TrEMBL record, chains A, B:
It comes from the Bacteria. InterPro entries: Dabb (IPR013097), Dimeric_a/b-barrel (IPR011008), HS1/DABB1-like (IPR044662). The lineage of its organism: Bacteria, Bacillati, Actinomycetota, Actinomycetes, Propionibacteriales. SUPFAM superfamilies: Dimeric alpha+beta barrel. This is Dabb family protein.
Amino acid sequence: MLHHVIELRFNDDTTDAQVEEMAAGLRGLREQIDTIRSMRMGRDLGLRADNFDFASLLEFDDQAGYLAFRDHPAHQQWVHDHVRPIIAERAGVLFLSP
Amino acid sequence: MLHHVIELRFNDDTTDAQVEEMAAGLRGLREQIDTIRSMRMGRDLGLRADNFDFASLLEFDDQAGYLAFRDHPAHQQWVHDHVRPIIAERAGVLFLSP
């Protein structure tokens, strides 16, 4: 299984509505991109001051499944419209696990 | 379920052996800390230049399970001995998902 791990730190002026719209958009991608095997996401609980604000965990069968997601127009539109405008920082890791 | 997501960027001089020792130590914590419900980890595949180097994904039943892990002496020793010396950056998120 290929794990796509993204952590986001939002801008100071990012609103809850913008975060919810971004998350709803990500959930919507599941209907449009059939290589996504699982999707979990959520906002940080605030137990540690230096944590990021949000994480999404997606799973794909393999690298081809991930690349289909990465290059899909709906994903790229979502990043342009709902992610880039509201984030100060992105931390990503893509790893394979048995 | 509570998701504990950690991404690490290693120092330039961090060796593969140090990374493997860190990962082996994390795997070893599963025997010592029984509140860990699942654990997955791996090194980034290198498909995107600005990605971090390593991610670990742990799951706990709830916040109490996470705090037992966070405050456990074995975990704190592992961070001191095997994580802090080899990392340039840490990105963490702790979130609840249904």
